[in-house]
Specification:
InterPro entries: LPLAT_7/PORCN-like (IPR049941), MBOAT_fam (IPR004299). This protein has 486 residues and is mainly α. The protein has helices spanning 2-7, 9-29, 34-53, 58-73, 79-95, 107-135, 140-149, 163-171, 184-192, 195-198, 201-209, 212-225, 234-237, 241-273, 294-298, 302-307, 320-325, 329-335, 338-349, 358-370, 374-380, 383-398, 403-430, 433-442, 446-468, 474-485; strands at residues 278-279, 310-311.
Length: 486
């Protein structure tokens, strides 16, 4: 038992601090004034950084303060670009500190630094995006589309916090240890709107936390029975090919339980404090918050707020059931770490100027945000290749299928999706190229060959299907057109 505690000391401390952050929420929520709440949240956040990081706390604290200064010193037109490059440059320095004569920080400090990067860059892009929306409003056509879809514009008011509020946002303890990422607008609403007073924070927190013991138990069981390091041993290589092929399933299962428990605890920190609560009629989205009628919600009276029904979708990172059951990798990506995916979409994908390279830019930023090990590239950057094949089979066989046929095809696609994720997750967990090569060599790098075969066969089947599809006679088309005109 003591050996286990010593081995996992940092994780136990981190878990304890997450639980402490959950427990402190009701007391934090009851603080009377806005200023008291802001300063208490900031001081508590900095204290957590120091407890977790020790002397390494200088990295997240200094990088955030310099990032905030850059935001305010540069003009709002360019603050997002300057902040983006500085924060990722500092992240590079932070992870290669030993090359510059400094001590490398712990994995837990790395997680805090990653969240700081999201917050500081995110608020800079919010400020710039809101300024562009106010100074250069959208064309009428886009406004009409927005009205048809009954959705708010991305930015409907100017966001330009002062330097003190930027510091408060950067260091507030809620979501600082593991996330989730939330916008500055969400943070600001927490102090100025009455929702946290009327939402059932305790009920949401208990409901969120009740499954965490199961996740932790499954993680401990899986990682003990099927340890990661076993794939690098000669004993593993002497096992049957089927055993070696399926071993990543249990590795990825253990990894998922760890992520589920961490993310669920992080969400509970938000629900306990009341941050991220919005009325359900706002059709709230992870990371973003209300997507419909935001200004109307903002002007809601206390009486209306008392009667409203709330959710915490704004700070929901994982849809666990979806992660386990969705059929396609594309759908799986939508329900996995949604808050970070929202950040990547808003900061990189939508704002990158070269359209054909948008997806590559988003994937590259996602990779270097996670780290610089080869495993992150192997895991994240190979997703599009599987998606290319998956999309073909989805359109050909699953999309229009019904009944038992749909269930059978769905199960096959689910198995292939799960197997692909597990194969990629092995690289993510093994990290370095030499370790990845040892495992992938033990299974003859077979999955890349399977991917290529799927893609080639899929393209052939698609073109065959397109060629054999019956075409409407020209006369029939002309009759249909004339009937429509009438």
């Amino acid at each position: 038992m003591w050996a286990f505690v010593q081995k996992n000391k940092n994780d136990i401390i981190y878990l304890s601090l997450l639980l402490f952050s959950v427990l402190i929420g009701p007391y934090y929520r009851k603080l009377k004034t806005e200023e008291a709440k802001k300063w208490a949240g900031t001081i508590l956040g900095i204290a957590l950084i120091i407890i977790v990081s020790g002397y390494s706390a200088i990295h997240p604290i200094c990088s955030a303060l310099i990032g905030v200064i850059i935001i305010k010193v540069t003009t709002i037109r360019y603050c997002h670009v300057a902040t983006f490059f500085f924060m990722f440059a500092y992240l590079f320095f932070f992870r290669f500190a030993d090359k510059f004569g400094f001590k490398l920080s712990s994995g837990q400090t790395n997680l805090i630094q990653m969240i700081i990067v999201l917050r500081v860059i995110g608020v800079a892009f919010e400020m710039n995006g809101s300024w562009l929306a106010v100074v250069n409003p959208k064309k009428k056509g886009n406004e009409e589309i927005s009205k048809i879809n009954d959705r708010d514009e991305e930015f409907i008011e100017l966001i330009n916090p002062n330097i003190i509020d930027l510091v408060h946002y950067s260091f507030n303890y809620i979501g600082l240890l593991t996330g989730p990422y939330y916008r500055y607008r969400t943070f600001n609403d927490f102090f100025h709107l009455p929702y946290s007073k009327y939402v059932d924070c305790l009920g949401f927190t208990i409901n969120t936390l009740k499954i965490v013991p199961l996740y932790i138990s499954l993680y401990l069981a899986f990682s003990h029975i099927w340890p990661l390091e076993y794939v690098l041993t000669e004993d593993h290589n002497n096992r049957s090919f089927l055993y070696r092929m399926m071993y990543p399933w249990v590795l990825f299962a253990a990894f998922r339980q760890r992520i589920y428990s961490g993310m669920t605890l992080a969400e509970s920190v938000c629900t306990s404090a009341g941050l991220g609560a919005y009325p359900v009629q706002g059709r709230n989205r992870t990371g973003h918050g209300p997507t419909v009628g935001y200004m109307k919600l903002k002007n809601m009276s206390d009486e209306e707020a008392k009667k409203a029904e709330y959710d915490f979708k704004t700070v929901e990172s994982m849809e666990v059931w979806g992660c386990e059951t969705v059929v396609t990798l594309r759908d799986s990506m939508k329900v996995w770490n949604k808050a970070v995916q929202y950040w990547v979409a808003m900061v990189v994908y939508k704002r990158f100027p070269i359209k054909p390279l948008k997806i590559h830019a988003a994937l590259f930023v996602s990779v270097i945000w996670h780290g610089y090990h080869a495993g992150y590239f192997f895991c994240i950057y190979f997703c599009p290749f599987y998606l290319m094949a998956e999309d073909i089979y989805y359109k050909l066989y699953y999309k229009e299928a019904t009944g038992l046929k749909k269930k059978i095809i769905g199960f096959i696609m689910w198995f292939l999706r799960s197997h692909s994720e597990s194969y990629q997750a092995a690289a993510f967990l093994l990290l370095t190229f030499d370790r990845i090569w040892i495992y992938y060599s033990s299974v003859y790098h077979y999955w890349y060959g399977v991917w290529l075969a799927f893609l080639v066969i899929g393209h052939g089947l698609y073109h065959l299907h397109k060629t054999n599809r019956p075409k409407k006679p020209r006369e029939t088309e002309n009759i249909e057109v004339s009937e429509k005109l009438k």
